[in-house]
Amino acid sequence: MSDxxxxxxxxxxxxxxxxxxxxxxxxxxxxxLLVFLHEGLGSLSMWKDFPERLCxxxxxxxxxxxxxxxxxxxxxxxxxxxxxxxxxxxxxxVLPALLDALDVAQPAWLVGHSDGGSIALLHAAGHPAxxxxxxxxxxxxxxxxxxxxxxxRAREDYEHGSLRAGLAxxxxxxxxxxxxxxxIWLHPPFARWNITDALAAIRCPVLAIQGLxxxxxxxxxxxxxxEGVPGTELLELPQCGHSPHRDQSAQVIAATNAFIHHxxxx
Length: 266
Prior knowledge:
CATH topology: Rossmann fold
Distance between the termini: 35 Å
Strand order of the largest sheet: 1-2-4-3-5-6-7-8
Oligomer: single chain
Low-confidence stretches: none
CATH architecture: 3-Layer(aba) Sandwich
Order of helices and strands: EEEHEHEHEHHHEHEHH
Number of domains: 1
Radius of gyration: 17 Å
């Protein structure tokens, strides 16, 4: 069951849908906190049971939420368009405001998928004291032709296929979620978006995971992270697309659990 909390953002009050997952196998005060950052078309509900399964395996608490414009959070304002810095604003404005509103003081492990992985990287670079570690699922650090080609296909599916109906099960306003994401990614200047320069500021441990059959990015993404953040652990999964937590969930949970426990013992 989700709840909501209000934050001030972009000169207005917005409601953020969120849910806590309590620890099951650890003392509450000592349990690591995992914060889940969804993909560009995702939401709290689109994670399904993955956060609960991962937290259960890791003996962790979890915080899952929908960013503004997604899920049951406040939709985009009428006529609102996102800028080239939309992921930076999520990392530097929305996430800190949400954590403050929920009185989260301990450093968190950020589990980010796709755009959520990029936001996690940017937050770790700008707020190192708030981040214990990063688990990145198919993140983006620059724009590739394969990404844009499949985002164009998604637009066709949304306008003429079944994608809108599918998203309507997870978003109060599917147009808010889809067009906010699709229009900025396909805005011609966004082809130059690149966050590799931010990687040098990251000080926490990183696990970067990507499928070998990812239709939205190549292995150059996570290998680029490893070049920019020394000590990054990579997991490259066969028979896996853009959603490793769905396509190879058991391997992702096992690798993440081992990563968190190993790093916490250092």
